[in-house]
Amino acid sequence: MVKKKELKEMSSSDLDKHLSEVRMDLLKSSSEASSGNAVKSPGRIGYLKKTIARILTIKNIKGGK
């Protein structure tokens, strides 16, 4: 788990890397849930979506799209 303060301190390239990792993790979790398998942590999908939104918001504030 990365805290908001840590995200703010990251550079734009680090944010891009972290964003791609979180998106891949979300894709895996979503595919598990949609295939009917038991999800280890159902709240993780919502957490990952919120993390993506936080990263994108910080990138917009910093001015790097």
Q: How many domain units?
A: 1
Helix content: over 70%
* CATH class category name: Mainly Alpha
* Alpha-beta content class: mainly alpha
How do the helices and strands follow one another from N- to C-terminus? Answer: HHH
What is the tally of beta strands? 0
What fold name goes in the CATH topology slot?
A: Helix Hairpins
Runs with pLDDT <50, length 5+? none
CATH architecture: Orthogonal Bundle
The rough form would be described as elongated
| Total DSSP helices | 3
What is the mean pLDDT? Answer: 89
Radius of gyration: 13 Å
**Largest sheet geometry:** none
Distance from first to last alpha carbon: 23 Å
Q: What percentage of amino acids are in beta strands?
A: under 5%
Short key terms for the protein model shown above:
65 residues, mainly alpha, 75% helix
Write structural notes for this entry.
The model has no long low-confidence stretch (mean pLDDT 89). The chain is elongated, with a radius of gyration of 13 Å. The two termini are 23 Å apart. It has one domain: Helix Hairpins (Orthogonal Bundle). Helix 2 packs antiparallel against helix 3. It is built from three helices and no strands. Helices cover 75% and strands 0% of the residues. The protein is mainly alpha-helical and 65 residues long.
